[in-house]
Amino acid sequence: MFASLAAWLRRRQIAFSENAAIGPHLHFKIGGTVSLLVTCTSAAQLAAVMKKVIAGKLPYLVIGGGSNIAFGDGLTRIVVLQAQAAAAGSASPMRLLDSRSLEVESGARNQPFLSWCASHGAGGLEFLSGIPGTLGGAAAVNAGAFGRSMADVLLGADIIDAQGTVRAVDSGHFGFNYRDSRFKFGKDTLLSLRLKFAPASEAAISRKTRENLEYRLARHPSYRLASAGCFFKNPLLRGVKTSAGKIIEECGLKNMTAGGLAVAAEHGNFLLNRGNASFADLQRLEKEIQSAVAARTGIVLEREVIYVSPDGKKY
What we know:
The protein is an alpha+beta fold. It has 3 domains: 3-83, Uridine Diphospho-n-acetylenolpyruvylglucosamine Reductase, domain 2 (2-Layer Sandwich); 94-207, Uridine Diphospho-n-acetylenolpyruvylglucosamine Reductase, domain 3 (2-Layer Sandwich), CATH 3.30.465; 222-308, Uridine Diphospho-n-acetylenolpyruvylglucosamine Reductase, domain 1 (Alpha-Beta Complex), CATH 3.90.78.10. It has helices at 3-11, 43-55, 110-119, 135-140, 182-185, 202-219, 244-250, 279-297, and strands at residues 16-21, 33-40, 60-63, 69-71, 75-83, 94-98, 101-105, 122-123, 144-145, 148-149, 154-160, 166-170, 189-196, 198-199, 226-230, 236-237, 240-241, 257-258, 261-263, 270-273, 306-308.
């Protein structure tokens, strides 16, 4: 089923692996194997591979930094395309469009992107500091912190749709909601983003980026630990967003475990893979937390992290 694509990738010297372990490529480290794992190092390369995959009617899934996703324990019969920023010495994945807007490829990672923003005087994007993953992933899930989110800064994007057509869309196409957009579970793929910024000095941007990162590091478990970040969405209670982590802590669930997983002692909304967690462990701990919180408070926590089914569907 995937042999023709593998041969095409080999001829073009595009990096790929067959029957590849997907867990090591995810922040959570939870997942079995996938039929084909392809690494795309530019938006142009991602578009070319996507067109080949779509033309061959192969099941596919695009991931960025793998920071907000978990796969099942067995084989997922699918092509996974991993979008990554250009390698050192290659063309930059970021460029200024004018004095208040920029373009960035979806595979660019957030922290290096913010360093580039500082050196180019592009302020107002520092809320991304400490959010793991790529710009494309951040846009797809409408990531945010410190009262701002991607919906506040996104102007438009270049995408490749499920029919293999590359086109430009505006911000309205995203259908943004809290930690959600049409790209989170849809089949359209982000190639590059156009973002607005506020001109600022390199010193001011660097200082704010550092402060935001230090704030997160002081309140979250070490980013060296295997986790998907905040696991549940913050619920809306009487019209006010309320911390899911605080709710979990007040229910006495800190350090709760299931197999190789544990609720972090530092923050109740972080689930930590202690090294050998399975997808089954993850599903069990999710349900136990939801059940305990619902029984004690009546609040139904909604998962933020994306799961992938054995046939490659996100849910």
